């Protein structure tokens, strides 16, 4: 079991309840990363399901849970021959923090009937760059859990020269050697800096709603994450992400709605 497996572990208490412990290693300046929180919930949902994979997840982030004990409450809505539908709630101190609807199924990684290519061509890994190590007091603890190497034009905001359009592109993997799986993909779709940074806006940008789809089981190796937005207005922005595996296969897609950065 890797550190990530332990950090997302869900222990069954009864037919509808799982105990979890939210790991401070996934804090980003205080709040816990939304992708990590989804991975915790999905551990419980998949354990409860007769199917192996979370193929569609919609999460409403009601509050920002803190590191420490919590529970996941699962409610099986319907189970069919090829898919199951579950409502799962992350609860901390008796208060609902995240509400999710999850569809589980079992993927076989059959050859696609049709497959499009990436929205953007990434440069070779050796031409990409990491962000500077954060100061310990920043609580950017997640940086130690993952490796993210960026396409340089998409992090111009770091040197005060943002691209002027919402975008973020990088190679991604867990810091501890681990082949990517659906739970790692839940982190990957929400692992990059908010795309509004490249539009010249900064600060904590809390996700309000995020939907992501597991499209295939990823091959070992680096993942490629391509993210962009269409509209930043009235204090809100959208962010779409594609995740491609080391073989060039599309393995995850996501869309989220978030608040423009504060603080």
UniProtKB/TrEMBL annotation:
Domain of life, source organism: Bacteria
Domain Acyl-CoA thioesterase-like C-terminal positions: 126-260
Name of the protein: Thioesterase family protein
InterPro entries reported for this sequence: ACOT8-like_C, Acyl-CoA_hotdog, HotDog_dom_sf, Sec_Metab_Biosynth-Assoc, TesB_ACOT8-like_N
Acyl-CoA thioesterase-like N-terminal HotDog domain segment(s): 26-107
Species name: Nonomuraea ferruginea
């Amino acid at each position: 079991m890797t550190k990530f497996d332990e950090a997302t572990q869900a222990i069954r208490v009864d037919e509808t309840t799982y105990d979890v412990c939210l790991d401070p290693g996934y804090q980003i300046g205080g709040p816990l990363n939304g992708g990590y929180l989804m991975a915790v919930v999905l551990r419980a949902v998949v354990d409860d399901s007769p199917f192996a994979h979370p193929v569609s997840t919609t999460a409403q982030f009601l509050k920002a849970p803190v590191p420490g004990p919590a529970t996941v409450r699962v409610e099986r809505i319907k189970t069919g021959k090829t898919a199951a539908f579950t409502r799962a709630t992350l609860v901390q101190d008796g208060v609902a923090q995240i509400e999710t609807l999850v569809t589980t199924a079992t993927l076989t990684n059959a050859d696609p009937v049709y497959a499009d290519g990436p929205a953007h061509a990434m440069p070779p890994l050796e031409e990409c760059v990491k962000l500077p190590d954060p100061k310990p007091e920043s609580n950017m603890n997640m940086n130690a859990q993952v490796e993210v190497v960026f396409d340089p034009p998409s992090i111009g905001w770091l040197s005060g020269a943002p691209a002027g359009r919402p975008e973020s592109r990088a190679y991604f993997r867990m810091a501890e050697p681990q082949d990517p799986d659906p739970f790692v993909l839940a982190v990957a779709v929400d692992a990059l800096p908010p795309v509004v940074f490249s539009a010249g806006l900064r600060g904590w940008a809390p996700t309000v709603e995020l939907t992501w789809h597991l499209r295939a089981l990823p091959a070992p190796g680096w993942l490629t994450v391509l993210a962009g937005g269409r509209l930043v207005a009235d204090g809100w922005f959208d962010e779409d992400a594609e995740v491609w595996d080391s073989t060039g296969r599309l393995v995850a897609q996501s869309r989220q709605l978030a608040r423009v950065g504060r603080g």
